[in-house]
Amino acid sequence: MDADVIVVGAGPTGLMLALELRLAGVQPLVLERHGEVRDVKKAGGLGGRILELMAYRGLLDRLQAASTEPVPALRLPFGGLHLDFTVLADPPMELLMLPQPELERLLAELAVEHGVELRRGHEVVGLSQDGAAVTAEVRGPEGAYEVTAPYLAGCDGAHSRVRELTGIPFPGTTYPEIQRLAQTTIPEGVTVLENRDLEVAGVGRIPFGFTATERGVFATGATDPAFLGVYTSEQETEDYDDDEPMTVAEVRDSIHRVLGVDLPLGEPVRLTRFTFHARHAERYRDGRILLAGDAAHLFPSGGVALNAGMVDSVNLGWKLGAAVHGWAPPGLLDTYHDERHVAAERTLLHTRAQVALRRGHDVSADALRELFLELASDEQPLRRIGALIAGTDVRYPMPNPGDHALTGTFARDLPLRTDRGAGSVGELLHAGRPVLLDLAGRSDLLAVAQDWRPRVDTHMAGTDDRPADALLIRPDAHIVWAAALDEPDRTAAPSLRAALSAWFGAPS
Ligand SMILES: Cc1cc2nc3c(=O)[nH]c(=O)nc-3n(C[C@H](O)[C@H](O)[C@H](O)COP(=O)(O)OP(=O)(O)OC[C@H]3O[C@@H](n4cnc5c(N)ncnc54)[C@H](O)[C@@H]3O)c2cc1C
Description:
This protein is an alpha+beta fold. The chain is 31% helix and 27% strand. The protein has 13 helices and 28 strands. The chain has a six-stranded mixed beta sheet with strand order 7-2-1-11-21-20. A six-stranded antiparallel beta sheet has the order 16-17-18-12-19-22, with helices on both faces. α1 runs parallel beside α4. The longest helix is centred in the C-terminal third of the chain and has 26 residues. The radius of gyration is 24 Å and the shape is globular. The two termini are 26 Å apart. Flavin-adenine dinucleotide (FAD) binds next to α1, β2, β8, β19 and α7.
């Protein structure tokens, strides 16, 4: 074997997976067809659950240090509208501004620091698998060669060669809309007013936010007040390549078609054009081959794809590690599809709904948007939509649905009092290992976990308002078992033993 896991693609998903595989104690080999990180402007930052997971890995500081811009106020676009989360005292998600090329450079740096072998300029062109291994045919700078490993993960993006070679269907829709996004310096003749409306010489006032017209949608607004941000969405069927550069003239023409206004633009800072797809791989696994990130799912609205792909990697990494080490219980690797497919379906649900919200250009569509905005200004619906965007509203399906209500949910970063002082749940997960957390001095339960000691860490801690007597937490921070408050040993111990076996294999 040349590695434990071959990771195809050094985008955010592949690099995150490689990092998680190293934490799980296995050796990934990352193959990336491009010779270097390309400066294609895609995501401008990260948001949602992945930021919590980065904090739980102790990596958030590195991301924050690399961040280029201040965090903007939490007013997020949603279906051609802006949802204002600043009205909530505790926002439903965090944001971090870090352009995708910088994110990829940093993740690559971290991966190499953790001992990942990353080969740039090496393209996977063929695949085969049998009961024991996967072999990838690779075209590298020095010619063609083959590599073999027990598992291979296709993190190779929307046009995934791995998905194509395994024949996994990728059904869905490509929307006949072109989105254009530009950030430029503020040109002469344009003034950004205090309420963020634009005053344009010879044209008049253009309101901040989204304007729907018969030809499409126009929006103005920028994350950085020093720049002018504009966006258009038009019904077009032309098939642009996402990587084909766009010009300022193309954006101005589009604004002219949509708004009927000749809006001057300044020097370009960021120009992007993209098409939205809603597609979902039927299966995330084919034998020893797995799919993650854009290779597995494409969402027809912005701001959610990076989060979804990187969280896939955190879900998958430890499970692949368990399979390579040989202690994975039957079915563990299949839970990757079961859990992340459900999560992507939730993301597809709201990103598809956003298409319906932003596309209509008649009075009924205006009424739908107005009503939606009215409902979304109430706290509960706003929180709910925030959780959908953040990818935090999912409870993973668990084998015993009657278990404690916390099973399948994400472990909150509870503040803890430990022998070594103050801590938190997130700190216990820095090493990416399973944790049995005893919150009530339950030595009976700690004793049960002794049989899994090489694989499962045990910790005793106190916390205010403990949600349970004990929690069994997976490396990806999901709770798979909990003892109810004061639950007797006679029920808690056997159910803990069953959960340890179901998730972390036979006792050692
Ligand atoms: C214009 C634009 C704006 C976007 N804005 C946002 C945003 O604001 N927020 C957000 O969350 N998402 C955004 N996205 C989506 C986001 O960029 C993707 O979801 C993200 O890049 C997916 O990461 P990935 O690692 O799964 O795939 P990719 O980033 O596509 O990485 C796949 C990697 O695999 C490599 N590869 C492909 N085939 C092979 C092969 N055969 N052999 C070896 N290597 C191969 C590729 O070169 C690439 O490096 C945007 C996308 C675009 C196009």
